[in-house]
Structures
1.
Amino acid sequence: MTRPCPGPDYNFRPPRIRPPAGACCTQAHVFGPACRFPYSEGRGYTPPDAGIETYLALLDMLGLDRGVIVHGSAHGSDNRASLDGIATAPDRLRGIAVVDPDIADAGLEKLDAGGMRGIRLSTMLKGAVGSDQLMPMASRIRDLGWHIVLHVNDSGEIAALEDLLRNLPVPVVIDHLGRVRGGQGVEYPGFQALLRLMRETDHVWGKVASWYRLSDLGPPYDDMTPIARAMIEARTDRVIWGTNWPHPILWDYPMPNDTDLFDQFMDWAGDDATRRQILVDNPASLYGFDA
């Protein structure tokens, strides 16, 4: 039996600084309801049901007009729960799919019609398709205008993949700050490889998300501040941000409050122009919200 995950903090409240119009959370999941969308037998965790209505309520409270549903591995490669969520607000939502490498072109096209704009590869999640599929899947999705979200287990993997990532023919988003830990710091070789890729290419992006699970100090996660700011300063026009609601696989850390996390990001971004670039302009370009 897989380990059940705790639920999120439902204390939704407005942030200290209201985001600009068109702001987007680029990292969230919807799970279930299991009675309609069963969880995968090969999953590594069991989340509580976390429906699209609650996620939209969170977006409304934070003042965010747009969101991206990253398909959760608890559902395997059955993307129906995420597609159903997108369909509730198709002008407002986009998605990132999880697919099997042998998916037919017609299957990819169906996902595209449902609002998916990329695929997620992971070396961390049980049963996931890993980084060995970076180049093969890049060639499969290139004509769709999609991108890859790469979720590594340790940022050291980015250093090992640096040459491959540099030569990918599609955009690639490195998830969760490259998963560099607070105790490893900005100078950690994997994180430095990520910063080089962001500075020296136009197709490698970084995502500021999930720092609460990477902090070695715990709340208020001060050890993650220099890491987040280093990513933002490296290439502001290649950074996106997300809540990671409802914060699955959070067994050994305190459950964060989404407003507290958003307030912290807004402090890290520092000024209105940077906030607009990361929250509005970058996701609009990457996920096709203006299309």
2.
Amino acid sequence: MSEEISELLKKVLALPPAARAALAGSLLESLDETVDEGAEAEWQKEIARRVQELDSGKVKPVAWAEARQQISAILNGR
């Protein structure tokens, strides 16, 4: 990694989490050269379904720290 990129990374990591997430999303989008319209439509339906489940109370959100612990436990066979 070049020094210029290392410096840029340090600055980006100092941003608030929401800004880092938005930047990461923009960077990922910039890598997509083609768009599968069918896949996009399916993702939109899935997103709408999940939002509805959250709004209705059918699904309860879990804090990232807790989710990370649960994932770690599964991966470590606990």
